[in-house]
């Protein structure tokens, strides 16, 4: 007979757990026979002692098997992309319809904002009526009819993760490699897709602040996916500055619509290149996994054509309609806009990117507590990026807001997030650092 306290003790003392012990814990936690405090204690012991690869794999497996695996009919290749999260990371909104336009089905299960990072579901909910709580049957129907779908985990998908994630969020056990691997991979494996591309971010706006720790996370997730017989690869990408030109829910959706519009002039004017580069790089890997392209160059050509011909935009609109959303013109707009002036003349050397995410929360665009309602209209536009020259008084970015007191606090946070120095910045990071497969 296994006693939960003995298992906690074994991990506390640095021993590797067996598959049976891990399964016992996850099954009991999911069905409620094992209380939250024992799961929280085990999670904290894992944070301190870590897990070897086999334990991480068993934990992932137990979490996948806590629920159902999507019973797809035989059909086209299905692939998904998962990002570990960042500031202004709206890639999914462009990538899912774009890849679907290339004939690869994308049944994407996404999450909400977590800490300072924005969540794809929150962004999509800024479209009035858009439903992110599809049932398993609806997820399968929308994917089958449109080619893509973006929704939250259904109650059947990895219920252990849903419960454990909520517990980790309030017990300081989010930032722990084996727990992150099992959490992300259990949801993706339960989707029962053929191929998965991971965007593992590093930097001041990512969970993993260093390149080394994010590379370790990427390797572990790829390995778990492969042990499941899936085709998986990961790109390690830079998150030391916001991705794209907008931060905040409705603003980010509008930015994606502009890109999906495919107007080269609009794209050049706004300077969308980092967002498009990451989107194309990840989407290209999905096409390669699916066998729809032989090389990154060939995949990019296909993707560019689909975007320019409006096929990705048509898929996006079909997905919005299938998930109950109204046309894009109905996105909310904030009452006020004002520029946040730079405090000094010089060059942007660094951006404390998480701080920008917290500034969106300060404006009301994210949650301080789980029950908070989101003001979808607020956020920031046209941020200065690392290496940009700025004059004192010139806008660091444009703030969209509805509440003056909140705006004052958010402005202070934005100014603090920027490091401006007189000499040009030299250490610019590559946007796409490495590939793991
Ligand atoms: N995203 C998840 O789904 N789980 C984690 O643990 C971290 C990021």
Commentary on this structure:
It is built from 17 helices and 13 strands. The chain is α/β, with parallel strands linked by helices. Helix 5 (91-101) packs across helix 13, helix 5 (91-101) crosses helix 15 (311-322) and helix 13 (273-289) packs across helix 14 (296-308). The longest helix is centred in the middle third of the chain and has 17 residues, at 211-227. The protein starts with a helix and ends with a strand. The mean pLDDT is 94. It binds uracil.
Main β sheet profile: 4 strands, mixed
Which class best fits the helix and strand makeup?
alpha/beta
The helix/strand order is: HHHHEHEHHEHHEHEEHHHHHEEHEEEHEE
Q: Which residues sit in consecutive blocks of at least 5 with pLDDT less than 50?
A: none
> What is the approximate shape?
globular
Secondary structure tally: strands: 13
Radius of gyration: 21 Å
Amino- and carboxy-terminal Cα gap: 41 Å
Strand percentage: 5-15%
Please, how many helices?
17
Mean of residue pLDDT values: 94
What spatial order of strands do you see in the largest sheet?
1-4-5-13
Percent of residues in helical segments?
40-55%
| Hetero ligands | uracil
